[in-house]
């Protein structure tokens, strides 16, 4: 009887200690700070219900196998369309629907980029974090966000594997472009054309891949420099890397191929050699920094540079 009376309390005590350890482990994960666009932030608890407005964040969280409960009305990236089937629409990437958010009652709301201006509003519904990726050092920020999400949802190992996969993709693409000439990045918006240099939002392509610039003095502003077709002809790049903004946002405007199909562009080395790369528009423009989106962009560039010439 005595041994029994001792054994049961001991067993219960061990169980209680185990439970306490589990609770402490969860608390440690939830209390860990994650890097955001506004600095390190401590998340109140492990999020079970997530609402996400940033497409790059949605792309990365989906790559980690995280279920997202609330998404924007339009996801832009074809590979993400399947997420709508199991989620509630809680606004757009520009304007969260606060009523829909309140009904969803998320544990955490992720904003970024276009939705980052609504951080204060969404914070009135639930804890919110700004995970904007600026593009100045896109790959480093993309990996930091990936690691942060891994910590947030307890998928650190999966995040580490994806970081390694991304690093390998960058290395393979860097090897593919080496010694094969310079490039000029253009974005078309209907009939308009802008150019982007090393210091621009798309400059990471040049820096990360060691890809020489066809023009060294392109204005390094966020939205690039408005250029003429004469500018493109005079630049005479070996390669053109083209993003179609109209295709990215689904505007239905004149597409990039039609815009660039003229005598001046046709006279460039890039055009005459068939060295014009049309990157996945939504991946490059809307979901920039999303892990899978970035890998698809790298794969497109790598594939083009790897073709026999």
TrEMBL record:
Subcellular location: Cell envelope
CDD domains hit by this protein: FatB
Transmembrane segments: none
GO biological process: iron coordination entity transport
InterPro entries, A to Z: ABC_transptr_periplasmic_BD, Bact_iron-sidero_bind, FatB
Keyword annotations from UniProtKB, A to Z: Ion transport, Iron, Iron transport, Signal, Transport
Stored PANTHER family: IRON III DICITRATE-BINDING PERIPLASMIC PROTEIN (PTHR30532), PETROBACTIN-BINDING PROTEIN YCLQ (PTHR30532:SF28)
Official protein name in the record: Iron ABC transporter substrate-binding protein
Organism: Paramesorhizobium deserti
Taxonomic placement: Bacteria, Pseudomonadati, Pseudomonadota, Alphaproteobacteria, Hyphomicrobiales
């Amino acid at each position: 009887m005595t041994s029994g009376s001792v054994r049961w309390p001991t067993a219960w005590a061990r169980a209680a200690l185990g439970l306490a350890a589990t609770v402490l482990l969860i608390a440690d994960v939830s209390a860990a700070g994650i890097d955001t666009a506004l600095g390190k932030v401590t998340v109140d608890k492990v999020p079970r219900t997530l609402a996400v407005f940033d497409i790059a964040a949605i792309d990365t969280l989906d790559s980690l196998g995280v279920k997202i409960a609330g998404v924007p009305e339009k996801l832009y990236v074809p590979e993400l369309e399947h997420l709508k089937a199991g989620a509630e629409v809680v606004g757009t990437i520009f304007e969260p629907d606060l009523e829909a958010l309140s009904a969803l009652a998320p544990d955490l709301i992720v904003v970024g980029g276009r939705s980052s201006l609504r951080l204060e509003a969404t914070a009135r519904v639930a804890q919110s974090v700004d995970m904007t990726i600026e593009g100045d050092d896109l790959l480093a920020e993309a990996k930091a966000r990936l690691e942060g999400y891994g910590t947030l949802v307890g998928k650190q190992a999966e995040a580490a594997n994806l970081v390694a996969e991304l690093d390998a993709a960058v290395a393979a693409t860097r090897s593919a472009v080496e010694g094969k000439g310079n490039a000029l990045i253009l974005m078309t918006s209907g009939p308009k054309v802008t150019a982007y240099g090393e210091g621009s939002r798309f400059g990471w392509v040049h820096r990360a891949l060691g890809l020489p610039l066809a023009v060294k003095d392109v204005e390094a502003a966020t939205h690039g420099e408005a250029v003429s077709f004469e500018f493109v002809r005079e630049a005479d790049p070996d390669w053109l890397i083209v993003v179609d903004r109209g295709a990215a946002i689904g505007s239905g405007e004149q597409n990039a191929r039609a815009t660039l199909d003229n005598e001046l562009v046709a006279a460039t080395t890039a055009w005459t050699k068939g060295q014009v790369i049309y990157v996945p528009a939504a991946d490059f423009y809307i979901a920039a920094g999303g892990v899978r989106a970035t890998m698809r962009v790298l794969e497109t560039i790598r594939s083009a540079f790897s073709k026999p010439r």
